[in-house]
Write a structure and sequence with these properties.
This protein is mainly β. Helices cover 0% and strands 60% of the residues. It is built from no helices and 11 strands. The strands form 2 sheets. Strands 2, 4, 5, 6, 9, 10 and 11 form a 7-stranded mixed sheet that branches. A 4-stranded antiparallel sheet has the order 1-3-8-7, with no helix packed on it. The radius of gyration is 14 Å and the shape is elongated. The mean pLDDT is 96.
Length: 120
């Protein structure tokens, strides 16, 4: 029904930058939240940043100032610009989209993830 395709992951040295992209396709409610989450080995998945269709953003405190999230509503695409990368940023990054299909039903979809490796 909904497909999320991530791109832009790869390997970079500490201090470098990467730009992740995620394109959503399918039947998507226009009022939604798209975001990036990450999961490092042995750790829980955590929010990196999210952005609503109205442009409202939410960042994890540790990422604010280094990462920037943006979106193109016409293309149902969300971006994550990552600057000043640190080895601890190494993780699989997952794209997510969610919305309220009704008062009592919220739906979530996930991409398969893209690996970001930061070397010191």
């Amino acid at each position: 029904q909904v497909q999320l395709v991530e791109s832009g992951g790869g390997s970079v040295q500490a201090g470098g930058s990467l730009r992740l992209s995620c394109a959503a396709s399918g039947t998507i409610f226009s009022i939604n939240i798209m975001g990036w989450y990450r999961q490092a080995p042995g750790k829980q998945r955590e929010l990196v940043a999210s952005i609503g269709s109205d442009g409202s953003t939410n960042y994890a405190v540790s990422m604010k100032g280094r990462f920037n999230i943006s979106r193109d509503n016409a293309k149902n695409t969300v971006y994550l610009q990552m600057n000043g990368l640190k080895p601890e940023d190494t993780a699989v990054y997952y794209c997510n989209i969610k919305w309220a299909a009704s008062v009592n039903y919220r739906v979530d979809y996930w991409g398969e993830g893209t690996l970001v490796t930061v070397s010191s």
